[in-house]
Write a structure and sequence with these properties.
The complex is a heterodimer of chains A (119) and B (107). Chain A is globular and about 40 Å long. Chain A is an all-beta fold and 119 residues long. Helices cover 0% and strands 47% of the residues of chain A. In chain B, the strands form two sheets. In chain B, strands 2, 4, 5, 6, 9, 10 and 11 form a seven-stranded mixed beta sheet that branches. In chain B, strands 1-3-8-7 form a four-stranded antiparallel beta sheet, with no helix packed on it. The chains are: A mainly beta (119), B mainly beta (107). The A-B interface holds A 35, 37, 44-47, 49-50, 61-64, 97, 102-107, 109-112 and B 1, 32, 34, 36, 38, 43-46, 49-50, 53, 55-56, 87, 89, 91, 94-101.
Amino acid sequence: EVHLVESGGGLVKPGGSLRLSCAASGFPFNIAWMNWVRQAPGKGLEWVGHVKAKSEGGTTDYTTPVEGRFTVARDDSKNTVYLQMNSLKTEDTGVYYCTTGYASTWYYWGQGALVTVSA
Amino acid sequence: DIQMTQSPSSLSASVGDRVTIICRASQDIRNDLGWFQQKTGKAPRRLIYAASSLQSGVPSRFSGSGFGTEFSLTISSLQPEDFATYYCLQYNSNPFTFGGGTTVEIK
């Protein structure tokens, strides 16, 4: 059975940092591209960033509003992907989901972690 | 960045209706497009990938079509469990981008 479990969400002040984790099981994590997607309260979905499989370079890409502040990283030995969020802004508030890659025939997603940035 | 324009933003329909949602890309994305369904308070679920391939486990009343810049998601006979918000996503070029969403409501 496949599981993607996000953790690390919570309340943080503007300018602060938070690290989300997404623990995966039940599929070949090492060949999966891993994405982070977020949703602000009452708004639509926004792709945040991804990390490619190490066999494809392990590189990362980000949406413009988070470039330079957020970092996606993976630890294949732990089947875990991370989202390090620095210099947080109130507009970063929302639910953050980790998902597998979009080009694959198989696709999995987590249930989300709530991040609230507020003074 | 590639802009994904989804229409309509909302629609009202009855059980049994045929429903079509359109997504237009600001530039050619080949068939690198997925469709997602999200119910209130739940994580989004993928319905379609590669523009027209049905995700395993998704009912066959859902279908996708298109290539290049214009795409559509069709529900052939709307069921009560289909009332939700639908999003398209292009994964052809970084940064990946979602459409604004289409909320399907009960008439």
